[in-house]
User: What shape does this take?
Amino acid sequence: MSKRSIKIVVTGASGQLGQCLKSISTNWDYSITFLDKQNLDITSVKQVYDVLTTIQPDIIINTAAYTHVDLAEEESDRAYQINAEAVNTVTRFCKENETKLIHISTDYVFDGEGLEPYTEERETNPKTVYGASKLAGENSILNSNLAAFWIIRTSWLYSNYGKNFYKTILDLADKNTILSVVNDQWGSPTRAEELADFILRYLPQLSSETRGIYHFSNSGSCTWFDFAKAILNKHNSHTEITAIKSSEFPTKARRPSYSVLDNSKITQVFKYKFKNWLDALG
Ligand SMILES: NC(=O)c1ccc[n+]([C@@H]2O[C@H](COP(=O)([O-])OP(=O)(O)OC[C@H]3O[C@@H](n4cnc5c(N)ncnc54)[C@H](OP(=O)(O)O)[C@@H]3O)[C@@H](O)[C@H]2O)c1
Assistant: This one.
């Protein structure tokens, strides 16, 4: 299949990753339709079938998700509706129409209690409603026996788009002279543009041979405090920052203390070279 002939649909197009994909899409010769929630609500079975049948995409990139980690503890039904049931609907469409699927998932499918980076084979054990709903979405794809799919688990996604830690720190630094950030939760920040670029660059290789789960995060690891400090440095901010413990910053959903993804499978399969998280920050 030549790149020009690949027809792609991106769901959740007004979200962070959706906007990143859109911002770099002109670099590629694909025919991409970006659909936000108004144009395609993935929880509507009728809309999924009507809209996608009209477009007949070769590949669907599903970035649509319920991503409110704390609120999900109260809105469990809604989280499952979007992250699990709707993913099942999209997967069913893909199966019936021989459409390939790229689905985005999360480090929250693990318990976050590990001591070494999580490989794709590691046992899942989500500790939050958000993580459990995302895992249910993954499982509906895995159980469907879809011919060609990638489930890409990522972590600590940030960019200039949408709501994310990077933007929150800059906002807070604008309004405060001192910030307190947790220093006992480890993970790997992931530049959303880099993930978007990986997806568009490598999607011609999406096939039954490469199907499966992949971990994608910038390499190396840090705490939220390290990440915040690096963000402030990059922007020459004079805002002071202090390290605090998770117990001093209670949240509704329990946060993983160690959430580093091992991304060596992508390196092996696609010969992809990840940027270190600090270099990716720029
Ligand atoms: N952000 C992170 O740190 C992070 C980390 C790991 C994994 N991920 C995963 O990465 C993916 C992209 O995340 P993101 O940061 O781009 O999230 P995001 O900014 O919250 O984008 C998700 C988009 O999906 C839309 N959406 C919600 N319900 C929908 C529905 N029923 N139909 C269609 N669209 C719907 C949202 O619209 P509304 O906002 O209007 O509801 C939003 O525009 C998600 O699968 C997420 O689980 C994210």
Remarks:
- The mean pLDDT is 96.
- The two ends are 35 Å apart (CA to CA).
- The longest strand covers residues 100-106.
- Residues 11-12, 14-17, 37, 40-43, 63-67, 82, 86, 104, 106, 134, 154-157, 162, 164 surround NAP (CB under 6 Å).
